Automatic annotation (TrEMBL):
Protein name: Fe2OG dioxygenase domain-containing protein
PANTHER family: OXOGLUTARATE/IRON-DEPENDENT DIOXYGENASE (PTHR47991)
Keyword set includes rRNA processing: no
Tagged with keyword DNA repair: no
Gene Ontology terms for molecular function: metal ion binding; oxidoreductase activity
Pfam families associated with the record: 2OG-FeII_Oxy (PF03171), DIOX_N (PF14226)
Superkingdom assignment: Eukaryota
Amino acid sequence: MGLEVDPAFVQAAEHRPKPTISDAGEIPLIDLSPLLHHPIPSDPSDPSIPDEISSLIAAIGAACLDWGFFQVVNHGVDLKLLERVQAVAREFFALPAEEKRRVKRDEVNALGYYDTEHTKNVRDWKEVFDLVVREYESDDGSFRLRNQWPDHPPAMREACEEYIASVEKLAYKLVELIALSLNLPAKRLNGYFRDSSCFFRINHYNPCPSPDLVLGVGRHKDSGALTVLAQDEVGGLDVKRKSDGEWVRVKPIPNSYIINVGDIIQVWSNDKYESVEHRASVNTEKERFSIPFFFSPTFSTNVKPLEELVSDDKNPARYQEYNWGHYFSSRLSSNFKKLDKDNLQISHFKKAL
Ligand SMILES: O=C(O)CCC(=O)C(=O)O
Ligand SMILES: [Fe+2]
């Protein structure tokens, strides 16, 4: 295949997707149906926890430990809500470019439509629509998160808001199960999300003449606490398998969500649950949509390893505290355009032990 794309999209040779990708060794598939019959227990050491729930907590703990990624079914989010978002997404991205650009992100307001995002300073083969649950403006007015709703399709706002309300409930359940798997009270982490900075995105990947040279989203780790991702039937999400560093394609499963641990859970758990690199590959034939919900704490949160999970002698804290709001705004400004420097990573807060 020749160079049929703008060089701004072309990945360095070592980061290009291989023509064949392993679909062996799939990420764990977890059935959340025990939650339909039992409440989430509050205390991990409660002797009356039903076996079904203990097994579920153990499966989530093992998936976080071994993969940092898993898929869930019987998750309680009504499929119709997702289908409505998929329908409005299809309509929105099919609009003429000038129509989409009327709600375009800019240097101050980071929300709306955007088609020139960079991951690690290489342009992504994608266009996105971003919104937040809670709007925000920095004290000096230099950074703003203000939702921009297009005139078309008119149902976009309602479809997104209803979907997000339901996915947020799922995210809380998962955070509680993850807390229990770390032997913490179920609601140990909930307070951080009270005025959460949740971020919602619709990714649209057009077919590409050179899928061997570009990526829909370059390799990255999600910087929030937990991501709840819906992908369509096309497939293209690749996860870096922890056991051997190989890229593995995540097979689309109807009516499932892909869950991954973000950098904040990695820091809270003092590296027990690692945030794992992933990317989106594209193809020559089919457009693809993916819809991540990034569940993240209040911007004022100072993120550091949880005190209950560290001990000065055996397991000292591996990170210095960092402020989530500063981190988030720095990451957002680094994906706005190509820069000459690397973006902020949690490794910058790693302590020399
Ligand atoms: O498209 C996908 O499957 C992954 C998207 C992703 O990783 C992201 O938006 O952070
Ligand atoms: Fe991601």
